[in-house]
Amino acid sequence: MKSPFIVKSFWLASIFWLCFNLSAGAQDCNFPLPPGNTCGEAPLLCDLDGYCSDNSSATNSGTPNAFCGIVENNNWIAFIAGSTTLEIEVSVFNCVQNAGLQVQVFETNDCNFYISKSNCLNPVPNNSTGVMLAEDLEIGQIYYLMMDGKGGDVCEYSYNLLEGITLSPAEA
Fold first, then answer.
1. When comparing pLDDT for 43 and 11, which is higher?
2. Around Cβ 69, how many Cβ atoms within 10 Å?
């Protein structure tokens, strides 16, 4: 049986390797991981800047209590705040129904009760951008970013950090 220290060390080393490779150059969409279908499955990303994906495989995991809309097909990513404020440009494109995406940042300890930490973009229309401002973040804490297809729309998206930083687990 492996000791918990060895397992934890391996996990942290793997995350560090992914974070290092993420910052080493241009990244493909879904790098290092695609978004999760639930808050509990949200991959912890080292860097939101330049992350891109789509919600084509998203399912309805339920509407968070602090969300400004109704969820049809949401997915999730997680990040560690490296600053108390993040300004995130959300670009939405190639939508099937032209309705766009709804996007918001949450704080949660259990993926059941949510506290809104940003304005809600409801929606970012197809072939456009919106700016989300997450405030009062605690440096070193994990936050969750949920995106949902407005009215069930399926779109591609990308994030561009305009202000603030995220941390890797090794930096937190």
1. 43
2. 16
153 neighbors 138 (Cβ within 8 angstroms): no
**What pTM does this model have?**
0.84
Answer whether 116's CB lies under 8 Å from 39's CB.
Answer: no
Residue tagged 């729309």 (tokens)? 153
Q: Between the CA atoms of 36, 37, 41 and 47, what dihedral angle is there, to the nearest 10 degrees?
A: 30
* Residue 125, φ and ψ in degrees, nearest 5: -65, 165
Cα 120 from Cα 33, distance rounded (Å): 24
Contact assessment for residue 157 and residue 30, using Cβ atoms and an 8 Å cutoff: no
CA distance 53 to 42: 13
- Which tokens belong to 143? 């936050």
Neighbours of 98 (CB within 10 A): 12
Quote the tokens at residue 119: 């304005």
Residue 139: count other Cβ atoms within 10 Å of its Cβ.
12
Q: In this predicted structure, what is the pLDDT of residue 27?
A: 59
Which residues are paired to 128 by β-bridges? 92
Q: Residue 83 carries which side chain, given as an amino acid letter?
A: S
Task: Quickly count: other Cβ atoms within 10 Å of residue 14's Cβ.
Answer: 12
